[in-house]
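Continuing the batch. This is chain 6 of the set; chains 1 through 5 are on the previous pages. Same settings as before, nothing changed between runs. Recording input and output for traceability.
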Amino acid sequence: MKLGKRNVFFFIIPVFVLLLCGVFLLRAPVLLVTDAPFDALYGKTRALLKRVEASLRLFRRVRPVSVSVDAGSDIVAFAVEVAARSPYLVLFPYRYLEGARRYAEAFPETPVFVLGGRSREDTEPLGFVSTDSATDFYRAGLCAALIASDAQQVAGEVLLFQGDPIPVEWSAAFLAGLREKGFEREPKYLSVTEDYSDTQNVVCVVMSGQATTFLERNLNIPVILFSWVDPALTSQAITVIFDDSPWALLIRVARAMGKEGTSLPSEMVFPAERMADRNMLKQIREKMFN
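Output for chain 6:
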């Protein structure tokens, strides 16, 4: 009995899908070490969506390995070992550096990367990924200038709250971003503990540190935030978030495997419906470098 072309087509499609699923499941997974406080900050639903996205784009399973925040290095290394026999890649936040060392010593054939924000000198010989903060501050300057232009307040003030004084090259990059989009005034650099009260002429606020005192005032001033926090938990004033969390960097680290160097810019997050001007949003996204 001969099968018609249509029947053959409907037979091949399920077989092809099953083969793809089989290959997907057989490929070595990417593991990401995480813990409860980070999950709460980042948002469990958000992390799940990132996990699904990364799994599909990398076409391999991405699995979080949850450990206790006070777990010793041996326990952290053991948890990763139990999670997968031969993972494709393991990502450790910097706070679990010693656990990463223990795991790398036991499994030298597995690529291990430590994600640490600012550049550090104590991660050798492990792979290390830092945040390209100069690029981030340049983009933050672009965003602030575009927000000022949209509000027709190019003569207004831009405040930058910082947890620690930022390096000269970062402030220079921030200023270059402001200047590129026509904002000529000098930004004001403040510590996160300063209660800046003269806000009448402020057009945009950038927070590279958690300036909670300022946020608690609930002012109607657009805020650009450097944070891993779930956008759903943030103030309505926050219009752009720079996220350099492990979930934000995972896909690029897995694809690069050291080829891109050791520094990656943050992922820019735009909380829904907080930026009314779609044209401005498009201009900002053109400068994302992701």
